[in-house]
Amino acid sequence: MEIVCLDLEGVLVPEIWIAFSEATGIPELKRTTRDEPDYNKLMEFRLNILKEHGLGLKEIQDTIATIEPLPGAREFLDQLREMTQVLILSDTFTQFAKPLMKKLGWPTIFCNTLEVAEDGMITGFRMRIPESKLSTVKALQSIGYDTIASGDSFNDLGMIQASKAGFLFRSTEAIIKEYPQYPAFESYDDLLEAIRKAL
């Protein structure tokens, strides 16, 4: 039995922090897991910037409300879910993901949680488990699933490497060059076909 594990941001929806960076005019918030492999370091950096500018959860959620799935993402996901089980593994947070899941037809997502003060300021974050994407893939394999994984960033490489088939999708030139053993795709049709062949 197979299960496909997909990253969320950059694969199915635009990067939330980049959209928020553009909405607020704070260029430092454009930094993502494509730039910084250490997710804890990246989040601490983001939270410090939010604090400096007095920005909280509501401001980020207001931006998320304007984000639409990438063109073709909903259709790709629908077609993929007709073929096999699909699980979205993301380092985003439940407080960010819900409106995006609605627009994608409520797929299953495993993600993390923000710690939010009464005044709406984000005070911290709780990761579901260490190396959540890789750990989840290994757990699925331990209960009899073969995994197929796809993502675009450094934090997706663990689950891609551990799966029976792994694909880069709309990744950076640097990652594609560093990991030439993983087929890299730019279109949903090509990714869907590669997954179909791997099933």
List its salient traits:
199 residues, alpha/beta, Rossmann fold, 44% helix, globular
Layout of helices and strands:
Layout: E1 2-6, H1 16-24, H2 39-53, H3 57-64, H4 73-83, E2 85-93, H5 94-103, E3 109-116, E4 122-126, H6 132-142, E5 146-151, H7 157-162, E6 165-169, H8 173-178, E7 184-185, H9 188-198
Parallel strand pairs: 1-2, 1-5, 2-3, 5-6, 6-7
Antiparallel strand pairs: 3-4
Question: Care to describe what's here?
Answer:
The protein is an alpha/beta fold and 199 residues long. It has a domain at 2-13 and 71-111 and 128-198: HAD superfamily/HAD-like (Rossmann fold, 3-Layer(aba) Sandwich), CATH 3.40.50. The protein has 9 helices and 7 strands; from the N terminus they run E-H-H-H-H-E-H-E-E-H-E-H-E-H-E-H. A hairpin with a 5-residue loop joins strand 3 and strand 4 (122-126). The chain is globular, with a radius of gyration of 16 Å. The model has no long low-confidence stretch (mean pLDDT 96).
Q: Under the CATH scheme, which architecture of the domain at 2-13 and 71-111 and 128-198 would be assigned?
A: 3-Layer(aba) Sandwich
Could you spell the SSE succession in H and E letters? Answer: EHHHHEHEEHEHEHEH
Across the major sheet, the strand order is 4-3-2-1-5-6-7
Under CATH, the topology of the domain at 2-13 and 71-111 and 128-198 is which?
Rossmann fold
Q: What proportion strand?
A: 15-25%
Task: Categorize the overall geometry.
Answer: globular
Give the distance, in angstroms, between the N- and C-terminal Cα atoms: 9 Å
In terms of structural class, how would the helical and strand content be classed? alpha/beta
Number of beta-strand segments = 7
By CATH reckoning, the class of the domain at 2-13 and 71-111 and 128-198 would read: Alpha Beta
Spans of at least 5 consecutive residues with low confidence:
none
Give the helix proportion (percent range): 40-55%
Classified in CATH, the superfamily of the domain at 2-13 and 71-111 and 128-198 is HAD superfamily/HAD-like
- Largest beta-sheet characterization: 7 strands, mixed
Radius of gyration: 16 Å
